[in-house]
Write a structure and sequence with these properties.
Length: 131
């Protein structure tokens, strides 16, 4: 399964990112904000939010992507609860993929947006989508 494959992403696992859903060009992940995620200002560190979004981006594509570029915009700070990342592939080509990811809090408020482009290798991922 995709969960087994992503067990190799030790950094995302250590950060507490969980993959909830995958489908054709779609993925949803979540992360519970814990004390280890907080920065000096007492809010969730941007790198933790980026890690959540990046894993959703990787899971939404159908072949192993190597990131070419990524961009994140932060809109609202959070210090507790769960954050959710919903990734949708907006461009799919044999070699290139682009995903847009919305990161929201438990109330559905937009926390950040992430855009990522990746280069696809010839190797298909060895899993079926999460049902």
């Amino acid at each position: 399964t995709i969960n087994e494959f992503l067990q190799g992403d030790k950094f995302a696992l250590f950060a507490g990112v969980e993959l909830l859903e995958t489908g054709n060009g779609y993925a949803k992940a979540r992360m519970e904000i814990k004390p280890m995620h907080l920065n000096g200002g007492g809010v969730c560190q941007g790198g933790a939010i980026f890690t959540l979004a990046d894993l959703a981006f990787a899971a939404a594509t159908t072949a192993i992507p190597l990131s070419i570029t990524s961009n994140i915009n932060f809109f609202k700070a959070e210090s507790k609860g769960f954050l959710y990342a919903e990734a949708r592939e907006v461009f799919s080509h044999k070699r290139l993929a682009n995903c847009e990811v919305n990161i929201t809090n438990e109330a559905g408020e937009l926390i950040a947006t992430f855009s990522g482009s990746g280069y696809r290798k010839d190797t298909e991922l060895p899993f079926a989508p999460i049902e």
